[in-house]
Amino acid sequence: MRFSIQVALAVTLLNTADASSLYRRNRFNSASNNTADTSHLKTWWHATGEVNTGTPVQDGNVRQSHLYSVQVASSISHNLSTFYDSFAYESIPGNGMGTDNASGVGTTMAWSSFLYGSDATVKISRSDNWSIGNYTIRPTNLNLNSTTYGGDVYISIPYNPRGYRFSVEFGDDLQTISGPEEKSPWNSLLIFASPMEDPSIIPSSSSSSSLVVQEGLISGLDSTQASAVIFKPGVYYCTGYSHMKLSSSVNWVYFAPGAYVKGAVEFSNTGSEVKATGHGVLSGEQYVWYADPDSNYTTGSDNNGLRMWSGQTGSSQQTFTLNGPTVNTPPFNSMDWNGDLTLMTTVATDYKQVGSFYAQTDGLEFYPGSQARDIFYHVNDDTIKTYYSNINIDGVVVWKYATAPVVQFGWASRELSNITINDVSVIHQSYDNAGDNPGLIGSDNAYTASTTGISSNHSTANVSNTMQDITWSNFRAEGPSACLFRICALENLRNVTISNAWIEKFASSDLNTTESLLPVFYDSITGAQVNVSNFVIDNFVVGSTKVTADNAGSVGQIDVDSAYASAVRYQ
Ligand SMILES: *[C@@H]1O[C@H](CO)[C@@H](O)[C@H](O)[C@H]1NC(C)=O
Ligand SMILES: *[C@@H]1O[C@H](CO)[C@@H](O)[C@H](O)[C@H]1NC(C)=O
Ligand SMILES: *[C@@H]1O[C@H](CO)[C@@H](O)[C@H](O)[C@H]1NC(C)=O
Ligand SMILES: *[C@@H]1O[C@H](CO)[C@@H](O)[C@H](O)[C@H]1NC(C)=O
Ligand SMILES: *[C@@H]1O[C@H](CO)[C@@H](O)[C@H](O)[C@H]1NC(C)=O
Ligand SMILES: *[C@@H]1O[C@H](CO)[C@@H](O)[C@H](O)[C@H]1NC(C)=O
Ligand SMILES: *[C@@H]1O[C@H](CO)[C@@H](O)[C@H](O)[C@H]1NC(C)=O
Ligand SMILES: *[C@@H]1O[C@H](CO)[C@@H](O)[C@H](O)[C@H]1NC(C)=O
Ligand SMILES: *[C@@H]1O[C@H](CO)[C@@H](O)[C@H](O)[C@H]1NC(C)=O
Ligand SMILES: *[C@@H]1O[C@H](CO)[C@@H](O)[C@H](O)[C@H]1NC(C)=O
Ligand SMILES: *[C@@H]1O[C@H](CO)[C@@H](O)[C@H](O)[C@H]1NC(C)=O
Ligand SMILES: *[C@@H]1O[C@H](CO)[C@@H](O)[C@H](O)[C@H]1NC(C)=O
């Protein structure tokens, strides 16, 4: 009774600005297990949750948030008085195995996921005595309605077939990292609301061509003749000295909501499509940084670190379809295929990457013709990688550590066209020097140039190549930011548009990260100057000031080489 009155009040408060409340109370209950499973709301729980912020958890356990508990109510199948438990996972830097080349030491990252088919309310409780003051939901432009009541935060999540991916950040739990003003949570909490799973992403577990994996130690996937491998709710693990080398018959891996799989996936099937679907978790937590399978998963150094997703092209086109999973703690680049990569394409939807504290934890590979939407990246290197043509990416939330730009198209001279990246919200970034190759949009110098930063050898381009017909639109950076772009033009640039970019404010200029640069580059053989034409900066706003040709240097911190100045147009 008390509960439903309280919640009715809280829900009423959700539509008001009033958060004047409230009590200080501890109603945290880590042992609860009251989940929803209807056509409007699905939540899940792990009976083997282990609260442990210091060491690896037991193989059969799942690290559970030491601080947060999350519950969800649906507006339809249940009324808003009935909240269901939604497991709050947790990731810690280096998984407590050592923090070499890990960022974020001393922090934790929690997340909770659920599926919904109608408006829902998320309730977040903290196990400490939170002195209610303030909290921020990022990206801030989601404008989610929320309130506090009785020591808990209630957030209203309207139904959206594309779901929501956001961070809830408490004002009394912020640390300052690298850049003098950058503030991010000590104990972060991400919420992932996804639409109910379409039947097309769920393989039949009764089919003779499906293998339902037994809980516990994973084995036999390299010899199965099944085409679909199914992880039902439960906990599975490979150990830190093995990963899932799938037999050539397997073209589909399904991670049910509530499946927690410690391992990494390697396809050997070379058919037209391989798939990884479902809203379970694939966790690299048992691997050390840069685990090299060729040296018994010890830290390597020759770009052979274990990818969470890998495969091999054959002699014909292959699509890698990714829909739903959350990847935790990748030990290295999250994805790479081998073979003729022009035969590959990636189609990614509703994909989340968390716990990327290690260095070199890149985002996905977008091979020619790739399409991606609704992605959350916690990431510590090249993030949105566009090394190929005909790519369309829409809706990415990025939490960035210090290395490499958010959009990366450099490292080598490339022939590229028809790339559109729309709606990118960077909620944190922590670049602290020019050698980080900072920025929202960037092209790093040739890998062979061997020095970091933009001031190295500028005779590394190939003017036989051109990048053209590129649109980067609706980019936003919350908090102190590095530059809008820093481009080593390793090919000619033609018809490139940055449209509707917003930087809340720049980080300190002492860090040498804030200046947008487009220096002159030359062909490595002929010495010919790289050509730049029709480079449009359309509606770039810093704070509330629009950047124009007149204030590009002072407000936009844009410094284009004089050789290219006339090619850059502000509108
Ligand atoms: C929830 O509790 C029931 C009864 O104790 C148990 O059978 C079930 O396995 C639990 N489910 C989870 C996901 O923990
Ligand atoms: C809402 O759910 C609560 C708890 O299950 C129940 O007591 C109440 O009668 C329900 N209200 C409505 C309007 O259905
Ligand atoms: C950390 O990474 C750097 C750069 O990749 C490397 O030089 C260094 O050896 C690494 N440290 C450890 C302890 O592996
Ligand atoms: C929270 O406050 C209560 C009442 O003052 C106290 O008993 C409890 O130990 C406190 N808990 C924490 C985690 O500080
Ligand atoms: C927030 O509440 C207002 C007032 O009820 C409503 O108009 C708006 O759509 C809500 N926004 C979201 C994102 O739910
Ligand atoms: C938010 O709350 C914290 C802790 O109570 C306080 O230090 C900080 O000043 C508050 N920030 C704002 C913007 O109110
Ligand atoms: C890999 O290393 C682990 C841990 O030291 C050891 O138990 C295992 O036998 C090794 N495997 C191989 C194939 O050497
Ligand atoms: C541009 O790329 C998109 C996304 O892959 C594709 O749908 C479209 O057909 C491409 N356009 C051309 C002209 O190739
Ligand atoms: C420059 O690019 C062209 C076209 O892609 C290629 O044929 C040539 O080998 C490249 N030159 C160098 C030096 O890499
Ligand atoms: C410039 O590129 C855009 C896509 O970014 C394309 O729609 C447009 O047609 C191109 N314009 C010219 C003149 O090629
Ligand atoms: C920024 O550049 C200046 C001048 O080159 C240099 O003295 C300073 O150390 C740099 N700061 C950082 C954080 O790299
Ligand atoms: C710059 O790079 C080019 C191409 O790799 C190379 O030929 C040249 O020697 C380099 N210049 C310097 C100063 O290192």
UniProtKB/TrEMBL annotation:
Q: Does the record's keyword annotation contain Signal?
A: yes
Where does the source fall among the domains of life? Eukaryota
Domain (Glycoside hydrolase family 49 N-terminal) ranges: 32-196
InterPro entries, per the entry:
B_solenoid_dext, Dextranase_N-ter, Glyco_hydro_49_C, Glyco_hydro_49_N_dom, IPU_b_solenoid, Pectin_lyas_fold, Pectin_lyase_fold/virulence
Alphabetically sorted, this entry's keywords are:
Signal
Glycoside hydrolase family 49 C-terminal domain location is 456-570
* Gene3D superfamilies linked to this entry: Dextranase, N-terminal (2.60.350.10), Single-stranded right-handed beta-helix, Pectin lyase-like (2.160.20.10)
Q: Which residues form a coiled coil?
A: none
Q: Extract the Pfam families matched here.
A: B_solenoid_dext, Glyco_hydro_49, Glyco_hydro_49N, IPU_b_solenoid
**Which region is the signal sequence?**
1-19
Please give one Gene Ontology molecular function term for this protein: hydrolase activity, hydrolyzing O-glycosyl compounds
Q: What is this protein called?
A: Lypothetical protein
